[in-house]
Model the fold of this input.
Amino acid sequence: MPNHAHCKARRAEFLAAIDTPVLLLAGSWISRNYPANWSPFRADSTFLFFFAVHEPNAAALFDPKDGTVTLFLDERTATEALWHGPVPSFADIKKLTGVSSVEKRADLARFVTKKIGRRKARTVAIADPRATAEAMAITGETLDFHDWAKVGDPALLHAIARLRHFKSDAELAEMRAAAAVTREAHTLAMAKTRAGIREQDLVGAVVGTFVKHGCVEAYNTILSVRGEVLHNHAHDNLLFENDLVLLDAGAERQSGYCADVTRTWPVGGQFSPEAREIYEIVLAAEKLAIEAIKPGVRYRDVHMLASRVLADGLVQMQLMHGDPDELVANGAHAMFFPHGVGHLIGLDVHDLEAFGDQIHYAKGRTRSDQFGTRYLRLDLDLQPGMCVTIEPGIYFVPAILRDPKFRKQFKGQVDFARAEQFLELNSHRGFGGVRIEDDVVCTASGHEVLTAAIPKERLAVEALVGSGVS
Ligand code: GLY
Ligand code: MN
Done:
């Protein structure tokens, strides 16, 4: 957990960057069905960033006028202790965090209204709708967590992002720890893979590893032999010898910092000739994109670089025809690589994604409307401390490759007859998809791959699959 001195320093930087009082809420329990049956609590990431306190219903007021930070917590009652156990007292929390004062959560509206007087206060919409509604009632803003244009005042979002974008040593230590747990989960799943079991058998191994280390899934685990479904959360397929398993899973530490890693491997332990070719192309694209990461590099250029390697490989395999640069310029590569090369990562697996393109696209840059490039979530010039994923892939998606509109648009550039052969592989189940993903921090001298210990070289992966040893 980043220590409280670190959080206190971040709060001081934030206070210096804002000119209105700012109210932040952690959010609270969200019920699964009846009110008392809750989903696991996860505090809002900005709140975690400033306080490293995982307490439901917590709130905080930053006041730049007098430099105070007031924390609001639920009262400690015997009933709460009976059902949920004892928690540190207000005095303990004040000492631990170094905030100016700790007040009763029930007094939030009254306290804030009195303290800010006639000044305008601001808040940020969070995933918990009740907390957001409560904060909006106090600040008088109309916000919407699900619409990034309305998630908060842009100047405030920038002030938060300028801090959260740059990971300190303490934060990177958390991310390396999340990567270590993620390595164990991925290698265990590879080792346990064999034909005849189901995807969910491997999901159990992955999630069990996270739990064993006090972590949770940073996002719903994707483990599928239908890797061409990009966010496939169904786990009931049987594994056949010739299938490829695509595992996209990352651990999240109690601090909230996480990993996001994808590996792909053959159920039978040996890539088929065509899977081997595709795998090596994706791996080459991933490595070249990672190598490009250094201060000042434009993330969109990294995306284009990976796309160029994929297009070149697909031309070599006669799945595409033409000059790779032209294929990428026309967007034809997106028929096999329909998503962006990655995203920021940190406390959110897609870090700060709720703040939208106003944060993720540099001034003067806007999203492409071209199919594929349209899903590029980030177009900043990278700076030391920024953490991103690099995750190229090649997929055989029937809905794309058989779409009459695309067949017309990319006639002559995509070899649809050859693609059809891949769609018919494995007794008509199709080839599936290959994605390889690592988490990378930009450093002053270039980059560090936080997830480098997770095997991805073809021979290393093949040696692990089905070995029972991880
Ligand atoms: N790990 C899933 C994603 O990056 O979208
Ligand atoms: Mn990712």
